């Protein structure tokens, strides 16, 4: 399999010693419920995990929870909770939705607050090696000391200085230096350390957890493209400086980000940005299909119409696996489909082409039914490779049922558009209603609607 490595900016052949893969994926900061961007990212790394196993690798995946952070402390103060309670609540919400999305659990989910000893260990090591300095009760990494700084994000030092210029902290020697240990302000949660009471910075926890749970070098490090700089750049600096190695992660894999097109997000349909809401309206299969129909490195547009059409598409696959075969004939071979599927996946997890092959299979099954052929092998292949992408293809209990209130709201919006002569918009709203099973008709008395 070839995987695009952000470090070299090339697709490279992926191999691993003893076919054993150590994979670390940056997890969520537990100040809020997971959103659709998290769902996208973890569906993608779940698919990597599943496919590597299919290829015969043993995968050991570790994903952290950043369960102490400024945002968590702010949220705790706002909600009159302690930061632990905020984290517990959101970790529970995380597992709840990710399990529903059929995302295989990682082998281990370390939490920053359980790794304080390891974090202090690696910071002490960095101070000893003169890559870090203590100042005002906090500890900073000295970016200038690490000669490879910028090798992942391919930025030069000036650009990085520019990016961090506004991060004012009088204790730092240079703007670009970043915090490893943050001294606690009065009232903040803290841990005891050689530098006084404080808490770990965000970047250092991942370096400490990788070392603690996976060792000095890992095969794949994953995360969203928004983490390349500074988070992953800083992880590299910390880990490689502390360990004296020069390749802490062999492959850096980054997913594209969810983009919101405000225009296309209909308020009246509820906010699918919240994964819990999305899962109430759509099946997990539809959400996975929507994510995987786009290549993982590309941005994914959050247009609810695309999720709606994924819901329709997935039902085609569900129907195809229920077709009866004519056992009197020789089965039609599925091999060319399987070869195509694997070829696509081997090309940097090419799920859009792999999914197109699943739909080709479904088409062949329907054609076979019409010709009274034996499609048993085609159905077996469709089931197996759908499952490999995490689709369960169970019959859906979900009908996209839009409420009366939402229908009226959309009709009002459409009438506004019409009276403002925004005909494109009014047509779009009519089509949207149609796609939700609502037919409208205009008459001099006004607009009426019925479910179709
Ligand atoms: Zn991380
Ligand atoms: Zn641990």
Write the layout of secondary structure elements.
Elements: E1 2-5, E2 10-13, E3 20-25, H1 36-54, E4 58-63, H2 70-78, H3 83-100, H4 116-128, E5 132-135, E6 138-141, H5 157-164, E7 178-183, E8 198-200, H6 202-213, E9 218-224, H7 228-243, E10 249-255, E11 258-260, H8 275-281, H9 284-292, E12 300-302, H10 304-320, H11 335-346, H12 351-370, H13 376-388, H14 404-419, H15 423-435, E13 438-443, E14 446-451
Parallel strand pairs: 3-4, 3-9, 9-10, 11-12
Antiparallel strand pairs: 1-2, 5-6, 6-7, 7-8, 13-14
Helix pairs in contact: 2-3, 4-6, 4-7, 6-7, 9-10, 11-12, 12-13, 14-15
The chain binds zinc ion (2 copies).
Main traits of this protein?
452 residues; alpha/beta; Rossmann fold; Four Helix Bundle (Hemerythrin (Met), subunit A); four-stranded antiparallel beta sheet; globular; binds zinc ion
Explain what this protein looks like in three dimensions.
This protein starts with a strand and ends with a strand. It is an alpha/beta fold and about 450 residues long. The longest helix has 20 residues, at about 350-370. The protein is built from 15 helices and 14 strands. Helices cover about 45% and strands about 15% of the residues. Helix 2 packs across helix 3, helix 4 (about 115-130) packs across helix 6 (about 200-215) and helix 4 crosses helix 7 (about 230-245). It has a four-stranded parallel sheet, with helices on one face. The protein folds into three domains: about 1-255, Rossmann fold, CATH 3.40.50.620; about 260-390, Anticodon-binding domain of a subclass of class I aminoacyl-tRNA synthetases (Four Helix Bundle (Hemerythrin (Met), subunit A)), CATH 1.20.120; about 405-450. It is globular and about 75 Å long. The model is unreliable at about 265-270 (pLDDT under 50). The structure holds zinc ion (ZN) (2 copies). The site of one zinc ion (ZN) has 5 residues, from helix 6.
